[in-house]
Design goal:
Order of helices and strands: HHHHHEHHHHHEHHHHHHHHHHHHHHH
Largest sheet: 2 strands, parallel
Strand order of the largest sheet: 1-2
Oligomer: single chain
Structural class: mainly alpha
Number of domains: 3
Number of strands: 2
Strand content: under 5%
C-alpha cells in the first residue's frame, strides 16, 4: 500500500473511533459498552464499514484539494483593494445586527467583569484584567456621555469594527499565500454567518481573544516563513496573553516545540525568557493593585471531576474522605449529588485549598485512587470532553451565541441600566429562532458543534502529511495546543472555548494548499 493511502487509512480509522467512542459515551457514559458480550463484533463491523467509507471520501477530498489551483485576481479593483473591500463588505453585512441588538449583548462573564471594575464584587484575575479595564472604561465613558447603554455600545462597536478588520486581514493573508478562490469564497461565506456578528457585538472577553489569536497565528506563520522578526512576533503574542489566562501557556508551549529546531532555538530561548519575566512582572503589578490572582481550582477541572466520580462509585478510606471534606467545605454527598460529568463548575466552585501543603495532600489522594481504579478516571475525562471529538454532541452550556443582556441577579445586580430596544424584540426573537431552526437541520447542524472542527483540523493535518509537506506541520502547533486546553476546560463541547480553533482553520487549510517556504 502506498504511503499516501496509509495516511488516509489512519485518519479514517481515527474518525471511526471518534464516532463509536463518542456515541457510546453519549448514550451509556462509558466506552465499555462497545466491548460487552456480542457487541464487540458489532463494533468491529461498524469500524470496518465506517473506516472504509471515510477512506473513500477522504481520498476523493484529498485528490480534489490537490487539483484546485490558485488563479490571480488580475488587475481588478478587488485585487488592488482586497483588504479594504473585505472590511467594508463585512462591516455593511452586519449593520442590521448593530441596529437590532443595540447596544449589544452582554454575556455572563462580561457582566461579572463590569462588577469587578465598579467594585460591586472583589476584583479577581479569574477574568483577565485588560479586557475588564476596557469594558469598565467604556461603560464609564458611556455614563459620562449619557447612559450605560452607550458605554456598552462603545465597547461593542469597537470590537465589532476590529472583528471586521481581523477577518478581512485573515482573508487578505490567504490571498497573499495564493489560496484558491473557492477556499477564499467559502471562508467569506462562513464568516458572514450571523453568529460571528453577534459574537463580535457581545460584551465578553472571548471575542477579542480569538481575534488576537488569528493575528498571532498569521504572524507566527510569517515568522516561520522568514517574513517577520523576533520583535514583531513577540509583540503580537502579548494580546493573546492579555485576553485569556491560558494564553501564556499556549505561547510558551509553542516556543518550547520550536526549541527542537536549531534555526529557532536561540530566538525561542530569548522569547521564552522574555515572556516568563513579563508574566511574573504582570502578576506582581496586578497583585500590588489589590487584584486577586485566579483561584488554583480553575486549573483543576480534570482531577476534581475524577475525584468526585470516584466518590460516586467507590468508597475511599476514612482519613481521605475527612480531608476532602475540609477542602470542599460541604458534605461530600452534596458534591456527589451535584456532579455533572460534562460541566465541572458545581464541583470546582466548592473546592478551596488554603496552601500548597493542602494541594500536595490532595494530589496524593488523587494519585492513590488513580492506581486503584484508573478506569474511573479515564471515564471521567472522556465524558467531560468527548464533545470535542464527537461531531453529533451539541454545545453543553450557552448555545451558539449570547443573544441578550444577562438577566441573572447573581451577576446583574441592578447597578447597571443596560437594556436592548423593545421595538426590535420581535426581530431579535426571529433571528434567534431562525438560527435554532438551522441548528436542527441534519448535517448542517454540525457547523454549530465543536467536534466537527476537530475533524477538520485532523483532516488538514492529514492532508499536509499526505502531500509530504512535513515542514507545514509546524503551523498547526499553536492550534493543537489551543485544542488541548479545550480538553482541560471545565465544560464539554463549549463553542465559546472552541472558537479560537474554529476561526483559524481556514488559515491552516490555506497554508496546506500553498507553496510557502518554511525555513529550518
Amino acid at each position: 500500500m502506498k504511503n499516501n493511502n496509509k495516511v488516509i487509512l489512519i485518519i479514517s480509522f481515527i474518525l471511526s473511533l471518534f464516532l463509536s467512542f463518542g456515541y457510546s459515551i453519549f448514550k451509556y457514559h462509558v466506552v465499555d459498552n462497545l466491548f460487552n458480550n456480542n457487541k464487540i463484533f458489532i463494533w468491529l463491523l461498524f469500524t470496518i464499514i465506517s473506516t472504509s467509507i471515510f477512506f473513500f471520501l477522504i481520498k476523493i477530498l484529498y485528490k480534489y484539494l490537490k487539483k484546485i489551483k490558485y488563479h490571480d485576481f488580475k488587475n481588478t479593483f478587488l485585487a488592488k483593494h482586497f483588504l479594504l473591500g473585505c472590511f467594508i463588505t463585512f462591516f455593511i453585512f452586519g449593520l442590521p445586527i448593530i441596529i437590532i441588538y443595540y447596544p449589544g449583548s452582554v454575556q455572563w462573564d462580561g457582566m461579572r467583569e463590569l462588577n469587578y471594575f465598579f467594585g460591586i464584587t472583589k476584583w479577581s484575575n479569574h477574568h483577565p484584567v485588560i479586557p475588564t479595564l476596557l469594558m469598565g472604561f467604556s461603560l464609564k465613558l458611556g455614563r459620562f456621555l449619557g447612559s450605560d447603554n452607550l458605554g456598552v455600545f462603545i465597547f461593542n462597536i469597537i470590537q465589532y469594527t476590529f472583528s471586521c478588520f481581523t477577518l478581512s486581514y485573515l482573508l487578505n493573508f490567504l490571498k497573499k499565500i495564493q489560496t484558491p478562490k473557492i477556499i477564499l469564497f467559502l471562508t467569506f461565506l462562513f464568516f458572514i454567518n450571523p453568529v460571528w456578528y453577534i459574537n463580535s457585538y457581545t460584551l465578553v472577553k472571548d471575542t477579542y481573544f480569538y481575534l488576537f489569536f488569528i493575528i498571532y497565528l498569521i504572524e507566527y506563520i510569517k515568522y516561520l516563513m522568514g517574513d517577520s522578526n523576533i520583535i514583531k512576533f513577540g509583540l503580537l503574542s502579548i494580546p493573546v496573553i492579555f485576553f485569556r489566562n491560558n494564553g501564556i501557556y499556549i505561547i510558551l508551549a509553542t516556543l518550547v516545540c520550536l526549541l527542537l529546531l536549531k534555526k529557532y532555538r536561540k530566538e525561542s530561548i530569548i522569547l521564552i525568557g522574555c515572556f516568563c519575566l513579563f508574566q511574573i512582572s504582570y502578576n506582581i503589578i496586578i497583585t500590588s493593585c489589590g487584584i486577586e490572582q485566579g483561584n488554583v481550582r480553575e486549573m483543576l477541572s480534570v482531577p476534581l471531576q475524577q475525584t468526585v466520580r470516584y466518590l460516586k462509585y467507590y468508597d475511599m478510606e476514612e482519613d481521605d474522605t475527612k480531608f476532602l471534606q475540609t477542602l470542599f467545605n460541604t458534605d461530600l454527598s452534596v458534591v456527589v449529588n451535584e456532579y455533572n460529568p460534562e460541566l465541572s463548575d458545581k464541583v470546582k466552585d466548592k473546592f478551596d485549598v488554603k496552601d500548597k501543603k493542602d494541594l500536595i495532600h490532595y494530589f496524593k489522594i488523587w494519585s492513590k485512587y488513580l492506581i486503584r481504579h484508573p478506569k474511573v478516571y479515564i471515564d471521567s475525562f472522556l465524558e467531560n470532553y468527548y464533545g470535542y471529538f464527537y461531531p453529533l454532541r451539541k454545545d453543553v452550556k450557552d448555545g451558539v451565541a449570547w443573544f441578550t443582556v444577562v438577566a441573572s441577579k447573581r451577576v446583574n445586580t441592578g447597578y447597571f441600566n443596560i437594556k436592548m430596544i423593545d421595538k426590535f424584540s420581535y426581530a431579535r426573537t426571529y433571528i434567534e429562532k431562525t438560527i435554532s431552526k438551522v441548528r436542527d437541520i441534519p448535517i448542517i447542524n454540525m457547523i454549530y458543534n465543536t467536534g466537527i472542527y476537530s475533524w477538520v483540523l485532523l483532516l488538514i493535518i492529514g492532508f499536509i502529511i499526505y502531500q509530504k509537506k512535513y515542514k507545514y506541520l509546524l503551523t498547526s502547533i499553536p492550534v493543537l495546543f489551543m485544542l488541548v486546553f479545550c480538553f482541560l476546560s471545565p465544560v464539554n463541547a463549549y463553542l465559546r472555548y472552541m472558537n479560537p480553533v474554529i476561526v483559524v482553520l481556514p488559515i491552516l487549510l490555506g497554508v496546506s494548499l500553498s507553496n510557502i517556504k518554511i525555513k529550518f
